[in-house]
């Protein structure tokens, strides 16, 4: 199943429509909040299957502002991230995803792209197409689920090379080029570039190294 994942459009859907029109074979569009009315408008105009969650701009502050989406590779935890306080730490969202038996946690809120694997669980933030915190044209995520696992990447708008993850052909993204293409590598590239999400990597550089989990859980983006 091919998933287009976006977040934090904040009423500006021009780039979201542009991305969707450039892609083919999207089975489900996932909108990770801010704002849910944007997801409703996308569904109305595109007629595509959409799964959405509410964000802080939707005034959603209940204890269950998340959904669990079953796929061929396992369950995906979908949340905007504000209730898990992802701007201060990823610890809460990791725990929530684990509690729900999920293989990945997808979230937004920070407006910063992230694609990382922590102890077998993926963290995916598509960033924002409309208001990217790191500047640039905005980003989105493309994920493919199958019985073999999860593959995917973060893509900048109007680019044929991913920031991190695996390429659309399933080949590894070039880690050096991906780093150079990131606007603020000290903040965004805390996520390791994975050779092939869902598959074991033979490259030590692309795997989560000792101490990475501690740094990830203590991460603060100051926004």
Number of domains: 1
User: What level of helicity do the residues show?
Assistant: 10-25%
Structural class: alpha/beta
Q: Numbering strands along the chain, what is their spatial order in the largest sheet?
A: 3-2-1-9-10-11
The CATH superfamily is Metallo-dependent phosphatases
Largest sheet: 6 strands, mixed
Which regions are unreliable across 5 or more consecutive residues at pLDDT < 50? 167-223
* Number of discrete helical segments: 6
Strand content: 25-35%
Q: What are the SSEs and their pairings?
A:
Blueprint: E1 2-6, H1 14-22, E2 28-31, H2 36-46, E3 50-52, E4 66-71, E5 74-79, H3 91-99, E6 102-106, E7 113-118, E8 121-126, E9 139-146, E10 149-156, E11 164-165, H4 175-181, H5 185-188, H6 212-217
Parallel strand pairs: 1-2, 2-3, 5-6, 6-8
Antiparallel strand pairs: 1-9, 4-5, 7-8, 9-10, 10-11
Notable features of this structure?
Purple Acid Phosphatase, chain A, domain 2; single chain; 6 helices
Task: Describe the model.
This protein has a single domain (2-217), classed as Metallo-dependent phosphatases (Purple Acid Phosphatase, chain A, domain 2, 4-Layer Sandwich), CATH 3.60.21. The strands form 2 sheets. Strands 3-2-1-9-10-11 form a 6-stranded mixed sheet. Strands 4-5-6-8-7 form a 5-stranded mixed sheet, covered by helices on one side. With 223 residues, the chain is α/β, with parallel strands linked by helices. It has helices spanning 14-22, 36-46, 91-99, 175-181, 185-188, 212-217; strands at 2-6, 28-31, 50-52, 66-71, 74-79, 102-106, 113-118, 121-126, 139-146, 149-156, 164-165. Strand 2 (28-31), helix 2 and strand 3 form a beta-alpha-beta unit. This is Phosphoesterase. Residues 166-189 have a biased composition (Polar residues). Residues 1-146 form the Calcineurin-like phosphoesterase domain.
């Amino acid at each position: 199943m091919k998933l287009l994942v976006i977040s934090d459009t904040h009423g500006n859907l021009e780039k979201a429509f542009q991305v969707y029109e450039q892609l083919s074979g999207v089975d489900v569009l996932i909108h990770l909040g801010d704002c849910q009315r944007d997801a409703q408008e996308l569904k109305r105009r595109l007629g595509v299957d959409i799964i959405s969650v509410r964000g802080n701009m939707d005034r959603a502050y209940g204890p269950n502002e998340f959904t669990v989406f079953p796929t061929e590779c396992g369950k995906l935890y979908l949340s905007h991230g504000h209730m898990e306080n992802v701007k201060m730490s990823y610890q809460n969202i990791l725990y929530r995803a684990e509690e729900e038996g999920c293989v990945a946690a997808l979230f937004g809120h920070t407006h910063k792209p992230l694609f990382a694997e922590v102890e077998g669980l993926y963290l995916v933030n598509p960033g924002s197409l409309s208001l990217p915190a790191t500047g640039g044209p905005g980003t989105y995520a493309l994920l493919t689920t199958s019985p073999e696992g999860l593959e995917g990447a973060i893509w900048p708008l109007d680019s044929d090379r991913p920031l991190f993850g695996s390429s659309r052909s399933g080949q590894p993204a070039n880690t050096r080029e991906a780093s150079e293409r990131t606007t603020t590598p000290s903040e965004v590239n805390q996520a390791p570039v994975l050779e092939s999400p869902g598959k074991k990597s033979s490259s030590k550089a692309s795997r989560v190294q000792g101490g990475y989990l501690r740094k990830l859980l203590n991460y603060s983006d100051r926004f």
